[in-house]
């Protein structure tokens, strides 16, 4: 992926099961070997909700029945480490259907349900910040490294 002179828009989707656990996968390609909630890029002309539906279907084969934007993250750790600056829109999903599958085995080592207060490490900063916003019931947190040129 090429670097841009401006931030890109990403999506992070927090899916919660009936036990209150969230869906986490281990990345294989982009942000390699880090754990993360599912997500990806917002495509041109998509709403946040449409992007979330598409990404979740592509990655897990689940069907989102209801989603809500709950947070925005400014992913400066990724910028510092990789030179890729993303702003991520975080959506919360509590209603979904289907059977969980790993649809992109070349990109993800598998999906697991985890306690959101016990995230596996190393963890992708956009995911960690999004989960923090969910747990703290806030829309944005400035926690993270500040990058200066």
TrEMBL record:
Pfam families according to UniProt: NUDIX
Name listed for the protein in its UniProt record: Nudix hydrolase domain-containing protein
Organism, as annotated: Candidatus Nomurabacteria bacterium GW2011_GWF1_31_48
Family named by the database record: Belongs to the Nudix hydrolase family.
GO molecular function: hydrolase activity
Nudix hydrolase domain residues: 6-139
Record key words, sorted: Hydrolase
Hydrolase listed as a keyword: yes
Signal peptide span: none
């Amino acid at each position: 992926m090429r670097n841009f002179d401006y931030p890109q828009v990403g999506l992070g989707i927090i899916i919660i099961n009936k036990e209150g656990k969230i869906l986490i996968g281990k990345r294989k390609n982009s942000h390699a070997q880090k754990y993360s909630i599912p997500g990806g890029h917002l495509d041109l002309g998509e709403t946040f909700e449409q992007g979330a539906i598409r990404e979740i279907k592509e990655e897990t084969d689940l069907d989102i029945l209801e989603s809500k934007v709950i947070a925005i993250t400014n992913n400066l750790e990724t910028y510092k480490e990789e030179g890729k600056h993303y702003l991520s829109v975080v959506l919360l999903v509590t209603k979904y259907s289907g059977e969980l599958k790993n649809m992109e085995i070349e990109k993800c080592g598998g999906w697991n349900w985890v306690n959101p207060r016990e995230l596996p490490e190393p963890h992708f900063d956009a995911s960690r910040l999004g989960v923090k916003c969910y747990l703290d019931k806030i829309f944005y947190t400035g926690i993270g490294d500040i990058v200066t040129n």
